[in-house]
Specification:
By secondary structure, the protein is mainly alpha-helical. The protein is 76% helix and 0% strand. The longest helix is centred in the N-terminal third of the chain and has 36 residues.
């Protein structure tokens, strides 16, 4: 019974964290995707932000919010549910209770959990990225100029390229998620331990310390895997215009035609975004996990 309660608690807490992350970070995520996929159209992140606001309005910065919300909520729900199971697996291997794992062992569990969350992330993020870059896709003639929502994009993909088309970029997503979430959870656990006062449990940290730990986790993740994310975004967005390159070929084309610097297009808004977005994610996750777990009678040793 307690295992079922823990699963439900991790699911609810993951949903809460994903929702908070989207609403705090979506505008800068839109700027990131635009710079990743069409870097030559903008002088800087600020120019992209200003141009989007001028030409598309505030709603332009929140384009893709529906699939982004679906992506983040489903990703974090699956991620944190899988994390609970993977902590049990790692704990069994190293003969420790899941709550006694070291930072490296927690990070390993997070990396394994990302295998499952990537299956949810890939299709929802593909739709999100195409919606965010729709104005640029239409302006460059890669798709027809028309109003189309997330479900229209999904239907069009399946109709044109088959039922597996929403999983374009899955290999790139795995390449990004597994090392990224290793660093993500290591950074979170390490920073929580460093910020905890003498004799204080990491689970009893003040809200501002949780925000810093979450932001640091996101900073480590994105600075390490950003080039992979650029390649993934190119594959997912530009395939809308008929380009069907794999990861290695896309990487070579970017480096050969645009230089290594193109692999870091959009890094600045991503770094700016990481503390409010990932800080909100973990703050909401920890709050929901503690309060919802208490509400349904989850044993305190698992919280």
């Amino acid at each position: 019974m307690n295992a079922a309660k823990e699963l439900i608690t991790n699911f609810v807490a993951g949903c809460a964290g994903g929702t908070a992350c989207v609403y705090c970070g979506q505008p800068l995520d839109t700027v990131k995707v635009k710079l990743q996929t069409f870097p030559s159209l903008y002088k800087s992140a600020f120019d992209c932000f200003r141009s989007t606001l001028k030409n598309e309005g505030i709603q332009g910065l929140y384009k893709g919010s529906v699939p982004a919300l679906l992506c983040n909520v489903s990703e974090n729900a699956v991620l944190f549910v899988a994390l609970g199971y993977m902590k049990n697996v790692v704990g069994a291997v190293v003969h420790k209770h899941p709550e006694q794992l070291s930072n490296l062992e927690n990070a390993s569990a997070g990396s394994l959990a990302s295998i499952f969350s990537a299956m949810v992330v890939c299709p929802t993020e593909l739709v999100k990225c195409r919606m965010q870059a729709m104005a640029e896709l239409q302006a460059t003639g890669k798709v027809e100029a028309q109003r189309i929502g997330p479900w229209g994009i999904l239907r069009s993909m399946i109709k044109t390229n088959g039922i597996l088309s929403p999983f374009q970029g899955l290999t790139s997503t795995w390449l990004r998620e597994m090392p990224g979430y290793f660093l993500f959870f290591y950074g979170y656990e390490f920073t929580r331990g460093a910020l905890a006062s003498k004799g204080q449990s990491k689970d009893d940290l003040e809200a501002w310390k949780t925000v810093i730990a979450g932001g640091t986790a996101g900073l480590l993740l994105w600075t390490a895997i950003f080039p992979i994310d650029v390649v993934k975004s190119r594959i997912q967005v530009l395939s809308a215009g008929g380009t069907q390159y794999g990861f290695t070929r896309t990487l070579r084309v970017i480096v050969r035609t645009e230089g290594v610097g193109a692999l870091y297009s959009g890094l600045f808004p991503t770094i700016v975004r990481t503390y409010p977005a990932n800080g909100a994610l973990f703050l909401a996750y920890e709050w929901a996990r503690k309060h919802f777990g208490n509400a349904i009678g989850l044993e305190s040793s698992t919280l």
